[in-house]
């Protein structure tokens, strides 16, 4: 059974909006991790919620390279 089309618009109910943000954030981070593992891609995501909380995903290969750059710079 196919899903129906719906219009993308702001969710007015704050609780529903926060739940949707959390679920979609987790789904996006999961997809980023899968892309990193399957394709050896370097992926970084930075998200700031409406409550100004910072959420980030950085693939391990990028983290290692950043660490190596910092070690060699000092």
TrEMBL record:
Pfam families: SRF-TF. InterPro entries: MADS-box/MEF2_TF (IPR050142), MEF2-like_N (IPR033896), TF_MADSbox (IPR002100), TF_MADSbox_sf (IPR036879). Keywords: DNA-binding, Nucleus, Transcription, Transcription regulation. GO terms for cellular component: nucleus. It comes from the Eukaryota. GO terms for biological process: positive regulation of transcription by RNA polymerase II. Coiled coil: none annotated. It is found in: Nucleus. One of its GO terms (molecular function) is protein dimerization activity. Residues 1-61 form the MADS-box domain. This is MADS box transcription factor.
């Amino acid at each position: 059974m196919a899903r129906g089309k719906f219009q993308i618009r702001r969710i007015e109910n704050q609780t529903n909006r926060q739940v949707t943000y959390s679920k979609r954030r987790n789904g996006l981070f999961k997809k980023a991790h899968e892309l990193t593992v399957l394709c050896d891609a370097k992926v970084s995501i930075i998200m700031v919620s409406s409550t100004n909380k910072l959420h980030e995903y950085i693939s391990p290969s990028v983290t290692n390279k950043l660490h190596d750059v910092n070690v060699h710079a000092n």
